[in-house]
Structure formats: structure tokens, C-alpha cells
Amino acid sequence: MTYNLLAGGYRNTFAYLSFEPSSAKLKLVSESPSPENASWIEASTTKFKAPSRVLYSLSEDAEKGVAVSLELKGEEVKITQERKTNGAPAHSEVVMAWLDLTG
User: Fold this and answer.
1) Distance CA 100, CA 29 (A)
2) What is the sign, positive or negative, of the torsion defined by CA atoms of 33, 55, 37, 19?
3) Judging by DSSP bridges, how do beta strands 25-33 and 13-20 pair with one another?
4) Mean pLDDT, consecutive 10-residue segments, the chain of 103 residues?
């Protein structure tokens, strides 16, 4: 079984990765633009039809942070909305038991 992961961080892209536990291989599938330092990614609890998923992310830029909503469709991530914050580190959490990004 292969697992798909979406990673942000202190860079300007989101990385969509696949992980195969039996071989311990991690593969970069695609990269998509992200706000600067988008280190938090949370899944929406709202149900959407596969293959589309909605996620949220916060950037941790000290002067011009942003909160964004994202659409994960296939292997690509698209920023759908953006709102400025007051900067500085932040964290968001969407309360849920489990998320399956594969549909």
C-alpha cells in the first residue's frame, strides 16, 4: 500500500509525496506554489467529491503572514482563497478523527 503525503515548510512550495512502507521509499510526486513558510496544513472536515479535497494552511512570515484555503485535486495543490494575518507563527487545527487523501 502506498501512502500520499502533502508537506509544507520553510520554503515556497507544497510537496506532494508518495511513501511505500515495504521498501521505505519516499518519492516527490509534484510541487505546487505555496505562501512563504507555509508550515501548517490542515484538512477540512467538509466532505467533497473525489478527487478534490479542501485543506487550509498558515504561513509563518514574521511580517506578512497569510491564511489560505487550498484545493488538492489529483497531484496538484491550488490556492483558492487567501487572507492576510498579522504575521508571526501560528497554528490551525481542524478537529477530526482521520483523513483519507486518496478519495
Assistant:
1) 18
2) negative
3) antiparallel
4) 87 89 93 84 71 79 80 87 74 52 52
